[in-house]
Amino acid sequence: MPIIHIAIWTKDLEKMKDFYIKYFNCKPSKKYTNKKNSFESYFLDFNGETKIELMKKPTIVERDNDYTKQFIGIIHFAVSVGSHKSVCELTDKLKTDGYKVISEPRKTGDGYFESCILDPEGNIIEITI
Question: What is the pTM of this model?
Answer without folding.
Answer: 0.91
